[in-house]
Structures are given as structure tokens and as C-alpha cells.
Write a structure and sequence with these properties.
The protein is mainly β. The protein has one helix spanning about 105-110, and strands at about 1-5, 10-15, 20-25, 35-40, 45-50, 60, 70-75, 80-85, 90-100, 115, 120-125. The strands form 2 sheets. Strands 2, 4, 5, 6, 9, 10 and 11 form a 7-stranded mixed sheet that branches. A 4-stranded antiparallel sheet has the order 1-3-8-7, with no helix packed on it.
Length: about 130
């Protein structure tokens, strides 16, 4: 089994930056693609960004393109989300997810019952 633990959330002012981390443990060799999602109060969980195993393919939701950068360090079994130019609308609980096959783009459109999820890290942007 794989376990995911997010960290790096916090409270920052609009225009600021944060870097989220998602550390994987367990059978990390089974992970093929990983992604970030977020859920704001009263809203559905939404896709943010995804990246394939070797980092050669990434995919972003339109609202974060040019502001967020997803990356992964396979040696550390860790995925990152560098967030810049943060807006109050970015306020949400951010989750990381992993699956054993598929594409980065597919993580934006399809949730699978065997997706693995972390517990989330809170990001709050003040205006």
C-alpha cells in the first residue's frame, strides 16, 4: 500500500507564495501518476495539477496555469506544488493523490475508486 502525507500549507497574503509537499511511503514503486486537488468550503473537490512518474507530462487546470508549478523528486518519493501569485480564491484544503497507471490529463477528468489520497493541508489566502 501507499501512504501520502501533505505539508506546507499555511496563511499568506494575496500575491504571496507557498510550496506544498506530498511525501509518499510504502509501495512507492507502484505509483505512476500523481496529482493535486483542492476543496474550498461549500464546494466540490476540484483538480489542480498532475504529473507523471518521470515528470515528462504535466497538466494544470486553467485557473492556475502560469502561477502554479508541479514537480516531483522520485529519489525522495515526494511531489511538490509551487504556488505563486496566490489569490483569495485559492483558499482551500489541498489534497494529493496517486494512482498506479494513467495520464496526467486523465487525473483532471476521472476519479478512480483505487486512487490513493492524503489527508490534506490547508491553504488560506488573505486579501
Amino acid at each position: 500500500q501507499v501512504q501520502l502525507v501533505e505539508s506546507g500549507g499555511g496563511l499568506v497574503q494575496a500575491g504571496g507564495s507557498l510550496r506544498l509537499s506530498c511525501a509518499a511511503s510504502g509501495r512507492t514503486s507502484s505509483i505512476s501518476v500523481m496529482g493535486w486537488y483542492r476543496q474550498a468550503p461549500g464546494k466540490d473537490r476540484e483538480f489542480v495539477a498532475a504529473i507523471t512518474l518521470n515528470g515528462d507530462s504535466t497538466y494544470y487546470t486553467n485557473s492556475v496555469k502560469g502561477r502554479f508549478t508541479i514537480s516531483r523528486d522520485n529519489a525522495r518519493a515526494t511531489m511538490y506544488l509551487q504556488m505563486t501569485s496566490l489569490k483569495p480564491d485559492d483558499t482551500a484544503l489541498y489534497y494529493c493523490a496517486a494512482r498506479d497507471w494513467g495520464t496526467a490529463q486523465k487525473m483532471a477528468t476521472t476519479l478512480r475508486s483505487d486512487d490513493i489520497w492524503g489527508q490534506g493541508t490547508q491553504v488560506t489566502i488573505s486579501s
